[in-house]
Amino acid sequence: MALRVPGHGMPSAASGGAPGDLFVIMRTAADSRFERHDVDLWRRETISVPEAVLGTERTVPSLDGSIVLTIPPATQPGLVLRVTGKGLPEFGGPRRGDLYVRVEVQIPEHLGKRERELYKELWAMELKESGHSPGRGDANRDGKQGVT
Hints:
The structure is a single chain. By secondary structure, the chain is an alpha+beta fold. It folds into three domains: 1-30, no CATH class; 32-107, Urease metallochaperone UreE, N-terminal domain (HSP40/DNAj peptide-binding domain, Sandwich); 111-148, no CATH class. The protein contains two helices and eight strands. The strands form three sheets. Strands 3-4-8-7 form a four-stranded mixed beta sheet. The chain is rod-shaped and about 90 Å long.
């Protein structure tokens, strides 16, 4: 962005001439915490599977300091939460943009024996409640992918 300040530049070359205009060039520095879209800010927040299922609170940065964000139970990957008025100020205007937080769910890559047992119990409960049984192509009870 360039701002022009009339009459505050260097004096003209002619003796006694009026000063010229001052041009101020402003550039915004990137902030690794956010991605900017006009006056709105975006960020990603990664949560665990239990946090997605049960809900949680996370402290996230904003331009005004940290805020507590409530992530509701049964959050699905990719959910976008909006925090009104926590984005950038609109240049020359009264409003502020919003902060958007995209929630990502981290699926565990390596499970311990007890964790695997608990997931199997949860899966069995889900199958019982839905009336389904594991089909071909589902992960088998040993946690291996492929056809059983």
